[in-house]
Amino acid sequence: MKHIKPVSKASVEDVTAALQGCMTSVLEALGLDQVAALLKKEDGETT
Length: 47
What we know:
Shape: elongated
Oligomer: single chain
Order of helices and strands: HH
Helix content: over 70%
Distance between the termini: 46 Å
Number of strands: 0
Low-confidence stretches: none
């Protein structure tokens, strides 16, 4: 039996979140705290 995993919306969101996390870490490492803070704000809180 073949098990084909459909790409669900959740998995796409997980990948996106992981990429954003990596980007934020890189920006912080480069010292771009303001940009990193903006990314975190976008990611976390939606007003």
